[in-house]
Design goal:
The complex is a heterodimer of chains A (about 575) and B (about 200). Chain A has about 575 residues and is an alpha/beta fold. Chain A has twelve helices and 16 strands. Helix content of chain A is about 20%, strand content about 15%. In chain A, the strands form three sheets. In chain A, strands 1, 2, 5, 6, 7, 8 and 16 form a seven-stranded mixed β-sheet that branches. Chain A has a six-stranded antiparallel β-sheet with strand order 4-10-11-12-9-15. A three-stranded mixed β-sheet of chain A has the order 3-14-13, covered by helices on one side. The mean pLDDT of chain A is about 95. By secondary structure, chain B is an alpha+beta fold. The longest helix of chain B has 17 residues. The chains are: A alpha/beta (about 575), B alpha+beta (about 200). Strand 8 of chain A pairs antiparallel with strand 1 of chain B.
Chain lengths: ~575, ~200
């Protein structure tokens, strides 16, 4: 039998972190195999950013019942983007009664970067050292000072639009021009300032300026507004247009789609990782392939599932789980709480379609950021994602409780309010707690390829619910200060998972007894295994996590390449 | 690109008969209907449960499994044991007995969508008893099939069944099993299955 090829590294996943790892490692001369569980993307078939609803007989809503039958948990999937998401029929997971978890997953080359929200914020030491500030949980083993150069590199590579706002708890970056606020957002910003809150343009990984020389084949955003259907000009950062082409150009990357990893194989002598076992999604043929380094970027919970499924004599509780914390400290952000209404001052203007403006106003965290803002009833904080403007399909028109009337009276009201809607919704931090965890389903449920699935155990504590109560009050306060007619307030907190910011479960730390990874995303137990995705997060902060994931990946890959050269892995 | 010879096929994998691991179905009136694909061929199937009981604290259904409609091959008396469930998100079916509020200690605080008293089962994962694939006319190992039943009701019978299945899950599959509640829920389920 011919000598089997051994790669320098196998990267599991081709999304934000997998793609970045492929770029970073190949640029440093390593030969990598990228295993992606889903199919390849055929741009002309799969990217639909310029399709109009009238091009489908279902007007963009899909055939009746499709979501309930095939993709019931893929909350953000639409008729034109469903190909980016898994079929829930093939990808089970389980929960305890009364405690659901909403798990949105992308299995396709590029992963969730094909449809992500693009919001790109830095964490600060208020997040990295949160435990030192308020005494809850643990600090990250790294500081903002250590992360700062990697944030800068990540922002420059992916292109982030934003404004330098000078907020210490939301550090500024190296930005392209910010997207402009519209009239309603300006009004809301003024209202926020009246009650002592900041309002800033959202910071988004979208090219608002001329692409830089390294942004080959990417174009400036032309404001078509259909980012979630796959950006076919590469204006929004995604692996497909940004990181994977760079890795491909080195000639050192092999990308294999349709490769579902079962587990990591282990050398029985050394206990180190030897390679991975995977099954072809389509042919169902089984493979094993070897590498010197294994890099998991399969997404927070999928990476954890692979590690938990990688049991062996040396690692009886799963790979890298000597601490017993693998799977634990599962977090998401929560939303669902906020306020909405109308700016009557903007009523009866000429109708314009502002769907192309995919930005908005962010009201960053304002609780527990100083001695003066310290809260008695909860630790950590929340911010608001806010938007205003005229949409082709205004949500208020579909909600009878917001827009009463029938026939001509209804139409009159829709026309009146068409240019006036405004809303704020919470993005809030969830505390990392040991009792929120994922495990391999103990009853033996498997996926369509016979791989054991996860069971989720997660619910909010009263800290999150107190924060939600506060957010309901402050969102209404801001809206009223802005002069809006308030039509809805409060709401229900989103089920865990719905914000699609699942984090934790293989956290980094200073102590091998209480964490899975060291500060370079390296397994304490198995030194040639790295977890670079959201599993490594120690706290969730309340900022969207992708920029931090990219920066962490760059940092980890620098370390991997150095250690590999020194033959330390 | 990756060439197949670069990866070593696992020993004996090629010679083994294809195994059907899981098949998806929707609740359609009182039956579980679905389809699965094998080597490019699509097989429609239907499982019609006629009786529910509790076995070692788990819900067990007995019924008939058929491929390709009523007139085709059939394996009778297939048992389906409920392994676990996935909580649903969205509108809960009307329930005779609401599940407990999980955050009852502090009722003044905001509630979470689809949890506690708003919760319900969205998917049920059953393990089917071994089936003879030759009798079914399926070129695959059908001895350890998992049936993933999606509950997304579109009529009253399905809504009632979803509520009954949800009650069984609440009573029998929680951290502490409620034997009396389980038996009541199974009785309700049997009366619905009987029509």
């Amino acid at each position: 039998m011919a000598q089997q090829k051994t790669y320098d590294a196998i990267i599991i996943g081709s999304g934000a972190t997998g793609g970045m790892a492929a770029k970073e490692l190949t640029e440093r001369g390593m030969r990598v195999l990228v295993l992606e569980a889903g199919p390849p993307v055929i741009p002309e078939r799969d990217l639909s950013s310029h399709r109009w609803p009238y091009e489908s007989m279902y007007r963009g809503f899909g055939a009746p019942g499709w979501k309930d039958q095939d993709q019931w948990m893929q909350a953000t999937a639409g008729e034109f983007s469903r190909q980016f998401y898994v079929k829930d029929t093939e990808h089970p997971y389980t929960t305890d009664p009364g405690k659901p978890f909403l798990w949105v997953r992308a299995r396709i080359v590029g992963g969730k970067t094909l449809h992500w929200g693009r919001m790109s914020y830095r964490l600060s030491d208020m997040d990295f050292k949160a435990a030192s500030f308020d005494g809850f949980g643990d600090d990250w083993p790294i500081s903002y000072g250590e992360m700062e150069p990697y944030y800068t590199r990540a922002e420059e590579f992916i292109g982030v639009s934003g404004n330098r706002d000078g907020l210490p708890h939301l550090p500024d970056g190296h930005f392209m021009p910010p997207m402009k606020l519209n009239c309603g957002e300006h009004l809301l910003r003024k209202g926020a300032e009246k009650v002592g809150r900041h309002g800033i343009p959202m910071r988004l990984a979208m090219l608002t300026g001329q692409p830089k020389p390294w942004m080959k084949k990417r174009a400036k955003c032309h404001y078509c507004g259909n980012c979630g259907d796959g950006c076919d000009v590469g204006a929004m950062f995604n692996s497909l247009s940004s990181t994977l082409p760079v890795a491909q150009a080195t000639g050192l990357m092999t990308l294999r789609p349709n490769s579902i990893v079962r587990h990591i194989t282990v050398d029985p002598t050394s206990g180190k990782a030897k390679g991975v076992a995977f099954v072809d999604r389509v042919t169902r043929q089984e493979f094993e392939i070897n590498a010197k380094v294994i890099v998991l970027g399969a997404s927070t919970l999928e990476s954890t599932r692979i590690l938990l499924n990688s049991k062996s004599r040396q690692h009886p509780n799963g790979l890298g789980n000597s601490s017993g914390t693998l799977g634990h400290y599962l977090m998401d952000h929560f939303g669902g709480i906020g306020a909405s209404g109308y700016f009557n001052i903007l009523a009866n203007r000429d109708a314009t379609n502002e769907d192309g403006k995919t930005s908005g106003l962010l009201i960053p965290k304002f609780r527990n950021i100083s001695k003066e803002t310290k809260q008695q009833r909860f630790v950590r904080g929340y911010g608001f994602e806010c938007g205003s403007g005229a949409r082709m399909f205004p949500p208020f028109a579909k909600n009878a409780s917001l827009t009463a009337g029938f026939g001509s009276e209804f139409k009159k009201r829709v026309r009146h309010y068409y240019t006036t809607p405004v809303s704020l919704t919470t993005r809030a931090e969830m505390l990392p707690r040991f009792e929120n965890y994922a495990e391999i389903d103990p009853s033996g449920v498997v996926d369509a390829w016979g791989i054991p699935v996860l069971k989720m155990h997660i619910q909010y504590s009263d800290n999150e619910r107190e924060m939600a109560r506060d957010a309901a009050q402050t969102s209404e306060e801001i809206l009223r200060a802005a002069g809006a007619e308030v039509v809805s307030t409060g709401g229900r907190m989103t089920a865990p998972g719905r914000i699609i910011h699942e984090l934790g479960t293989a956290r980094m730390g200073k102590d091998a007894k209480t964490s899975v990874l060291n500060k370079f995303n390296q397994s304490w137990d198995v030194k040639n295994v790295f977890v670079i995705d959201g599993a490594s997060f120690v706290t969730s902060a309340n900022q969207n996590p992708t920029l931090t994931l990219l920066a962490l990946t760059m940092r980890a890959c620098e370390y991997i390449a150095d250690e590999y050269k020194r033959e330390n892995l | 690109m990756f060439e197949p010879e670069q990866g070593r096929a696992r020993n004996g994998a090629a010679s083994r008969q294809t195994k059907v691991h899981s098949i998806p179905a929707m609740l359609r009136d009182r039956s579980f209907a679905g389809r699965f694909e094998l080597s490019g061929v699509t097989y429609k199937f239907k499982y019609v449960p006629s009786r529910a009981s509790l076995s070692d604290g788990k819900l067990m259904l007995e019924g008939k499994f058929s491929i390709g409609g009523e007139a085709k091959a059939r394996v009778s008396d297939v048992k389906a044991t409920l392994l676990a469930a996935q909580g649903g998100i969205g509108n809960a079916p009307p329930r005779k007995k609401l599940p407990p509020e999980i955050t009852a200690a502090n009722p003044d605080l905001p509630i979470v969508e689809s949890t506690g008293s708003l919760s319900f089962a969205g998917v049920l994962y059953f393990k089917l008893s071994a089936m003879n694939s030759r009798l079914l006319g399926i070129p695959a190992d059908m001895t350890q099939v998992q049936l993933n039943l999606r509950l997304a009701p579109v009529n009253e019978v399905e809504r009632l069944l979803q509520a009954a299945f949800s009650s069984v899950v609440d009573a029998a599959y929680g951290k502490e099993a409620d034997r009396g509640g389980s038996e009541t829920a199974v009785r309700e389920l049997n009366s619905l299955l009987a029509g």
